[in-house]
Amino acid sequence: MINLPVKDDPVGEALHFLRMSGSFYCRSELTAPWAMELPAFKDCLMFHAVTAGECLLEVDGNHSCLLKPGDLALVPHGAGHVLASAPGVPAIRLFDMPRRSISNSYETISHGEGGASTSMICALVHFDHPAAQQLIRLLPKLIHIDSWKSSEMEWIQSTLRFIAAEAQQLNAGGETVITRLADILVIQTIRAWIARDPAAQTGWLGALRDKQIGRAIAMIHREPGRSWTVADLASAVAMSRSAFSARFTQLVGEPVMQYAMHWKMQTALTQLRESRVPVAVLASQLGYDSEAAFSRAFKRVLGISPGAARKNTVSHAPMLEA
């Protein structure tokens, strides 16, 4: 069966799926005046951490923040944005910047006119799992974590100091250390937003926190191959079928059986992308008596056959190419 370890925290279980299936990292050393225009990257999250100096970040012309040493910013929906030393500096396209490749997933940029310096680590990441994608869709256009405003954020300072030291020396394997630490920073930043932002108390995340609906969602997540019914789930959380169905739809935004089917098929899609398990075996794991029945359901929900989904699977690692 395809399932999760049983926990009592549905939100924690959702965070379990925040695994990056493709990542690209860049260390930038910039001197004022400078400005860099980053294009939109479909289905990607962009991350910026300043280790020295400061910079302005502006998304869509109306979401902006000043990043200082130790600050983190996420642009969750891959929107185009500008990083700059000061307002009004003409921006250069990212692809026109002088870049040096360190590995297939790590580059460095050095640029500027010799003024005040800024050092930063940037990342472009993709999340493949449906729970991760669901969570990313709920995030705002811009998340800014000011680590100096809270003693709880001390971990950011220590991690960024480690990243800065590795970036300056770049010893053998240093890029691997930097990318792994950046992965942790991305996930921890999302966790910090969930803990601190009122918007995280509503919608799907709010449903996960609901004692009964959250438990039902966790059951669906743990056992995607089970043939769930409204009666099964309602009974498990001690609610009547009608009350359970109404509350689930109200909190989650779709009927429970539709949610369960979508989860099942997104789980199947992830398995097709990440493993070579035969379609017939996957069909059996997900509760289907035949490969044909599974294939029909898969195409009905996702609009593509399992075979085509696997054939069309390509690396989701975002590459910085013009």
TrEMBL record:
The record ties this protein, via PROSITE patterns, to: HTH_ARAC_FAMILY_1, HTH_ARAC_FAMILY_2
Residue ranges of domain HTH araC/xylS-type in the record: 214-312
Keyword set, alphabetical order? DNA-binding, Transcription, Transcription regulation
For the keyword Cytoplasm, the answer is no
Q: Which domain of life is it from?
A: Bacteria
What are the recorded GO MF terms, alphabetically?
A: DNA-binding transcription factor activity; sequence-specific DNA binding
Known InterPro entries for this protein?
Answer: AraC_lig, AraC_XylS_family_regulators, Homeodomain-like_sf, HTH_AraC, HTH_AraC-typ_CS
Q: What is this protein called?
A: AraC-like DNA-binding protein
